[in-house]
Amino acid sequence: MLSNSLSFWACLPFVVLLASIAVFPLLNKQWWDKYFPVVSIGMGILVIQYYVFVIHSIIPILDSLHEYISFIALIGSLYVITGGIHIRLNGRSKPVTNVIFLAIGAVIANIVGTTGASMILIRPYLRVNHYRIKPFHIIFFIFIVSNVGGALTPVGDPPLFIGYLKGIPFFWSINNLWYIWLFAIAALLLIFYIIDDYHFENLTHHQQNLAEEIGEHAKVEGLFNIFYLAIVLIAVFISNPPFLREVLIVLAGLGSYYSTSSKIHKKNNFDFIPIKEVAILFLGIFIAMVPALDWIRQNSENLGLQHAGQYYWATGALSSVLDNTPTYLNFLNAALGQFGSKGIAAQIGYFLQSQRIIIQAISIGAVFFGAMTYIGNGPNLMVKSIAEQAGIECPSFISYILKYSLLILLPLFVIIWFLFFR
Fold first, then answer.
1. Contact 319, 366 (CB under 8 A)
2. Is residue 204 part of a domain?
3. Could you read off the pLDDT of 212-231 as tens digits, one per residue?
4. N or C: which end of the chain has fewer CB within 10 A?
5. How far apart are CA 336 and CA 300, in angstroms?
6. Is 32 part of any domain?
């Protein structure tokens, strides 16, 4: 609990940080690449000062830092472990090949999580498309593998895991969200195929012939890293004692790094630049977003949310720019609060029986809308960084939203609302 009422103006550093991420790379990319740590950490320091000298409570900051440690330990270790797995596919991609690849990624995302699937598949995806790679290839990978794909299990995306910890059965998501997931994945794959086929047909005859060449034989190296990946997936379910989960995850990452040969790392063009950028940027984000999350927590029950569609849009809109896990939890608690002060287990039981559509709306909003921006979900920025390290030009923060999110995702999300939550 906060000792003093939280001012909405405390959210200003977070707004400034988001605006900086969107604008400065366009105005002066060299300046941003050099000084983004100053901007990110600086906005975080302003928020810390506000909580120390105005709110007189540092607990929300410490809680967010704990979440950040868990986040960066997981995403960092997965980045290292998957960097030790080299997947070489046979031949080069055609539109149908890419559709199959992304569909498999959407399924795998529910087994190893959106972060795990993204880190495992992004490098072979880039390699098989290298002769004709375009920015939309990266964006649709983020849409499908890094976000929408992980809506079927608690392992798939962190918000669903929080729901599982709060009493929602493990298989509830796949039993109740599968048809929405299937509709969204099918729609995105169809749109992707149309765009990819158009670009493929406009290639030169020589470029199209490249896709017919067999190339190198398919091969997977570093399979022993699956052992370390399994340790990470098991550790995710450990909640006590404090920090044991994070220690195990980090140890798995270290074990993978030091047991993987430098030849595999070299084949994957592996270095620590992408994870360094993500770690610094998200440190500022995790701290600067605390006032926004606290404001939602204080006011969620007064927002007048009554229907599934309202929960869908509210959860989704905020999950686009805030950590979708606490956003999911805040709106879940707000929905449960409509039914009195019964124990949370009893409330979850009631929802599962008579108000499951609200949990469906909150779950889909939290998972799907993470694809709306680069910072909506952790893997998004990682995929972008890895692609840029491979020399691929990716859309800016604003271009991502204007050219892809608003034109492709938003209409799809409106259709999902109309069909399932209206």
1. yes
2. yes
3. 555 556 788 999 999 999 99
4. N
5. 11
6. yes
